[in-house]
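Progress report, Aim 2. The chain analyzed during this reporting quarter is listed below.
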Amino acid sequence: MYFTVFTPTYNRGGVLKRLYKSLKKQTFQDFEWIVIDDGSTDDTSKLMESILQEDKNLKIVYEKKENGGKHTAINMGAELAHGEFFFIVDSDDYLPDNSLEIIHRYTEQIRSDFRYAGVAGLRGNSEKNAWNHFGIGGKETTNNEYLKKEYLDATSFEYRYKFKIYGDRAEVVRTEVLKEHPFPVYKEEKFVTEGVLWSTLAHENYLFRWFNQVVYITEEYRTDGLTKNIKDVHKKSPRGMRDYDNFLIGCCELPWLERLRAGVNYFISGSQANDSNIVLFRNIACKWIAIPCFIMSRIRR
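Predicted structure tokens for the chain:
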């Protein structure tokens, strides 16, 4: 099996079939579709049961579990995966007909070179219009010369901070690499950012081949989705955010401004997690930025 297309879903029964139809139209068909239902309370299970009964050609794995957050669904999906490369496609998004064919072209180029964790294409609201900003109101890429090239080889950190390319991307990672880097799980918290994975791989000097073709369609960011509600989500999962920010603080390859920003967020999340200041000062990954970041975190609060 070449690809695992993985879909974590929660109460998206009304849109999930659009993704399914786009998978059926793929011009490259050596893939499986794994759907992990993160405790949906709508008709998702009925929809998937109907698809499983009707479709005997596409290999589909559907599992429903207790609600625990997207990161726990990804961990579960990785363990079930048989594909060589793992492609996370959210349930309210879909793929152009030639998406996997394009991705296959680039994975074949790096398949035997294990310096590469995988490849990454563009996301767009159509096949011709890429998203060049992060989520809602995030940093935006304008007139970047590297987006005019066929592809760029770089770590995630280099792509974002050296080459200054912003915008959500469609990463496709080696399944074995993903299995070696499971997301941490925190009791009573239901969110860990996918940045944990991409940043860890960058810190370990894994490359991606970033190619400039749209292979993933997000028509809009839903009002009830993670992206539009990210600040509230962070507040409800402070320990995961605290540890992620502390990891970034310790990444010497990041620009100092990013490490300082992470330091401020570390103290804010740590406070929300009810950590004492003594514990936060003791555990911070870079001691010399502790005091200025602590002061700035008090001002931001």
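The chain has two domains: 3-217, 237-300. The first strand starts at residue 3 and ends at 9. These observations will guide the mutagenesis work planned for the next reporting period.
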